[in-house]
Amino acid sequence: MALRPKFNPAAEGLSSNFQLTKYSGLHGAACKIPNNVLKSFLSELQSSDFRPDDYLGSGYVLPRLGIGLDSCVIPLRFDGLSLVQTTDFFYPLVDDPYVMGKIACANVLSDLYAMGVTECDNMLMLLGVSSKFTEKERDVIIPQMISGFKQAAIEAGTSINGGQTVLNPWCLIGGVATAVCQNSEFIMPNAAEPGDVLVLTKPLGTQVACNAHQWLEQRKDKWHKIKAIVSEEEVEKAYHDAMLSMARLNRTAAHLMHQFQCHGATDVTGFGILGHADNLAKQQLQEVSFVIHNLPCINKMAAITKACTNLFGLLQGTSAETSGGLLICLPREQAAKYCSEIKKVEGHHAWIIGVVEKGPKVARIIDKPRVIEVETTDEGCVQTVPAPAAGNPAVSTSIAFLITDQCCKPTP
Fold this sequence. Notes:
Elements: H1 35-42, E1 72-75, E2 81-90, H2 97-113, E3 122-130, H3 135-155, E4 160-168, E5 172-182, E6 197-200, H4 206-218, H5 221-226, H6 232-247, H7 251-259, E7 264-267, H8 272-281, E8 288-298, H9 301-307, E9 326-330, H10 332-346, E10 351-358, E11 363-376, E12 382-384
Parallel strand pairs: 3-4, 8-11
Antiparallel strand pairs: 1-2, 2-5, 3-5, 6-9, 6-10, 7-9, 8-10, 11-12
Helix pairs in contact: 2-3, 4-6, 7-10
């Protein structure tokens, strides 16, 4: 997405004080039901049984994935075809309605991309129009949200054919993404092996950036708590970088998963990187665990979370993300090549952040993870912030092999 001027409500005939994010009472992790509670609620819907028509004439069983990860994978009654489908929606977390629409669409599609599916056959849009909007606000904001959602769908090579729109006290937007696939078009998220490494395709810290921007505009106690460590310009830059990141599709990342022998992936969203890594670990066929050493974060967001006594849990891996990157298990010999290729194709960095080892199907972050500061350039490319010439902390030799390629480590 090209660099975009800041949304100006007055230029749209609205009050200069209009903020889309005020039309929701919850943001980020506060919107999420705890993962263990959610699984308990949904347990009655889950089934591990195969229908007779799941079997091909050769006796081969088509893969099936139900509740628990990013998309369901359901064998169809037509030989060799499966339905891959997902749905998601959430409340406004940025004040630009067009960008909010793009983020919502990208977020829905990411669940398909996490399965290696790059072609979406159809989308539905789910829209909740706030009953607290004035008619003028409704008529300005909603068309822009729809336009952003549509534009992201066009970028993904798909279209929107249906959905549902209702009045709701809080504004919301989301959708459904559907693909009909042959077996070769999706990657089951369960084949990680000891010795694999973990790659992340977008930086963390979107929730921190959005909250810090709200604090800046409110200029109350929370802003006064962080203004000594971060400038207004740095907060505005981080917020802008977060919007660009959230609105960017993971489609290229998904395409390259096939080329570089991906063993499974998930997208990083509301449960934070640790929550989603743990969920992915529990799906593995082998007894493996994931260990995260490196945390690529939007520039200055780690400093903010430390100043707020880890309010967000960013360094603990529990900070909610929206439309985050793909967390991908790759063979060790393929990971650096994957990072190089995504940079070649998109101009964006990806990062090797951890390892797969034998273990009881859990994920953890080491006690002192290495924070990699990330920024978006004026050209719109996401890259590691160049490290200072001197005083750069040494990298632990135990993970030195993780950063063997220039695209996966700070620029010297």
